[in-house]
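User: Fold this; C-alpha cells only.

Assistant: Input:
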Amino acid sequence: MGRSLPGRPEVKVVEKVDSGNDGLLFRADSEQLRRNLACKIIPRANLIHGANGEELWRAEVHKADALRNPAVVRFEDIQEWKDSSAGIDCIVLISEFVDGPSLRKFIRKFKDQLTVPFVVRWLTEMFSLFHEMEQRGVSHGDLHSGNILVEDRYSYSLLPPRFAFRVTDFGVGESLSNNRFKDDYLQLAMILKELLEAIDYSLCSQKDKFIFDKLRHELLARHLVEMDQTRDPLARRPQELFRRLGEFDAQFEEFKQASENQSDGLISPFDFLSCEQIGESSSLLHALYSDRFLGLPEIEGRNNIVVTGPRGCGKSMVFRSLSLDQRLRVGEADPDDIRYIGVYYRCDDLYFAFPRYKAPDMGVGIDIPIHFITATLLSKLLDSFERWARQYFGDEFGRAQPLAARSIWEVLGIGPPAVPGSETLRVIIAQLNKERNRAAEWHRFVNDPKRTVGHCFGPEILQRACEALGAAFHFLRDRPVYFLVDDYSSPKVTEKLQENLNRIFMQRAAFCFFKLSTESSVSFTTSDIDGKSYVESREFILHNLGIVYLHAEVEQKLSFVDDVFRRRLAKTVSQFPARELEELVGHNLEQNQNNLARQIRGKEKPSLWGMETLCQLCSGDIHYLISLVESMVRSAGGVEDLAKRSHVPKLRKEEQNRAIREAAGGFLKNLRGVPGCGGQLVAIVEAFGNVAHSHLKFMDSKNESGSPPKQASRIEPYEYFRLSAEAQQIYRELLRYSVFLEDFRGKSRRGHVVQRLYLRRFLIPHFQLTFSMRDSIELEPSEFEEFLLHPQEFERLYRLKSLEDVERLRRREEEAAARVDQLKLFPEQGEEMV
C-alpha cells in the first residue's frame, strides 16, 4: 500500500479491492493520467510458462484486445514487479478502474435492487458480448460473478440505463498454471442461477413473475446448459438467445390476454415443445400429458429402471406427471388411484451444486453428493407425502406422525432441535433443506485442508428413511416410493458424480425404487466408485423409448400421436382451423413400403404425407412431429391462410412432402456443428444412407415373395463387435445424438445376440429409403470399424453402382455363410476364427 509500480513510478497503489485464488486486485492512482487504474498482481509462479521458460500467459491475456464491446475491460499495460530483497516476483496487469462492486458483492449488499428487469438487462448485455466473442473466436475461460462489475451511473449520467455491466479478466483463467478453463455458457448459467435465487419471487409483479419463469425454465434449465444444437437450436447461439429474450414482453401480453379470457391454454398448438418450458403450470402439464404414452407400463413397474430415448420423446413429461405432487395439484390423488408415491426430481440443481464433479482429494468428502441428494429427495418425499396424508388420512397421520418423525431423526443421525414441533415432518423438511445447502458449501472447499466437512449421510440413509416412513403409516404398507430422477445424463451429471450416486440409485428394496431418465444408453454409467458394476436386468432395466416406439404396432402409434395433437388443438385459445390431426394431414391408408421402394428404384420421389407417414417418421421424439406439423402450417401461409381452406386435409400433400424432406437437412446441419466430431458423424450417416440407397436400387429382398427391392434402414453385424478406443468413442457419440438407435432384441445370422442399429427415422426420406424394418446392411466387425473411422472409404467400397457390384457382394456373403458352416462343423476353431 502506498508504493509505486517499479516500471510506472507515477502509478501508486492506494487501496486493496479484492483477492482471489491466484492474485490480488488493487486500486491505484495515476498522477500522469489523473485517473484511477486497476492493478491485478499475480505471482509469476502462478502463470503458465513453456518448457524453456517462454511466457505463454501473455498471449492469453492479450486475447481480449480484439473485442470492441463496451462491456469488456481491457488490459492497458503489463508490468513486472521484482524485489529480490522482499522476495517479490510478480506480474501486474493494469486496466481501467471500474467504480462499482462485483456482481457477487452487489447480490450480497444490494439485494433490494435486484429485480427481474435488472437480470434481463444483464443478460441482454451478456448475449451481445457473447455474439462478438463468437464472431472473433474468443472465450473468457473463467467467467463468474466476481469477474463482472456493476457500474452505477446514476450520479453522473442522465441517460439510461442506470447500471452498466463490465467484464474483466479475459484470458486470466487460461494464463494460470493451474489452468481451470471453464465453459462460458455454463458459467453464465451459474451466474443467472445466483441472480434468480436472490430475487423474492413473491414480491414480483405478474409480468415479472412471467419473465422470471421464462428465465428459470427456458434459459437456465435448457438453453444455457444444453451443448447439443441438434436438440436445441438456440443452444450456444447468442444471437438467437438475444432474440428469444426480446420476445418475452410480447409473450406476456399474449399470456395476459389469454388469462383475461379465463384460459390457461396455448397461444399456438405448437407451443411448449419441451417440458421445461411448461414451468410450474400443473394444469397445462396435465392437459398436454397423454396417458397413451408408449412404454408407460414398464416405467410404472416395480423395478429400478433407466429410461432413455431421443431428446423430446416425453421422458420429463411422464416423470413429472407420475409424481404425487402433480397429482395433488390437479386433483387426481385419490388413494384408490395411487399405487405408489412418486417423487419427481430434475438434476438441474445437482449440476449447479457439483459442476464438473471429480472425486475429491480428501476421502472425507466422498459422501458429500450422497448427503446432498439424500436431503433433497427425502425432503421432497416428506413434503408431498404430508400434504397427501393430511388430505386423505388425517386422523391416522395425526396419531402416527410423532412416531414417524422420531424414527426418521434416528435414521438421519441428527438430534432433533429442542423446539416445539420437532416431532413433525415439517421440522425435518426444514432441517433437510439446511443440509442441502451445507453439502453444496462443503463441496466448494472440499480440497481445502483448512476447511472441515461435517457428518455426511451414507448411501443407506434414504432407503432406511423410506422404510421408517412406511412402518409408521399403515396406509403406506402397499405403496412403495418411486424416486423419478430426471435428466441424469453425462456430461451434465459427470461420470464420476454418477459413480458416486449410483451407490444409492442402484439399491434394490421392496419399499422404494429408482427411475432414472437419461439421454442415451451411453450417458449413464453402469458402475460406482467402489468398483461395482451394475448388470442390466439384475440391478436395473434399460428401457429405450425410441426402440419401444419403433417396434410398437401402427394402431398404438396412431392412437398416441392422435391424442397428443388432439390435446394441443383443444387447448389452443384462439380458434385454430382444425381440432383433429386428421383434418390437417389426413390418412394415407394406401401407403405401402414395397411400392414406395419400386417408385424410388424407378427414379421417382414418392409423395410422403398423412398421419401414417408422421408416425413412421417418429423415433419416439414426439417434439419432432409437433415441429414438423408447425413447419407445414407455416409453409401453407400460416393459420390465416389455412382457415380459408375448405378441403380436407387442409395441408396439401405437396406441402407435407416438402416439409418432411426439408426437416432432415436441418438436423444434419446442426449435427455438423457438434464440436470435435460433428463432421465425422455426418460423414458416417451419409455413407450409410448412400450405401443403403444403392442396395435398394440394385438388390432384391431375400425375405419376401415377389422379390421387392431390398429396403435396409438398419445395420446388423455378423458378430458382437469389439471396437478400438477411437471407434468406440465415435460409436458413443452416434448413440448420444441418436443418429442411430441401438437395439439388442435380435440375433444375427450366425445366432449371436448383437446390437442392431436403426437409422433415426426422420432421416430416411433424405436418403431415399423406405420405413420398412425387414432388411439390414450386414457387416463384419472389422467392416463396422472401417465404417466408423473411414466412412468415405467404406462408401467407396460398398456402394453398389452396377449389377456386377451386386455379384461381388453376393460372393462376399456366400464366403461369410461358409465360415458359419465351418464353425458348426469345427467349433474348436471358432474362437480363432472370431
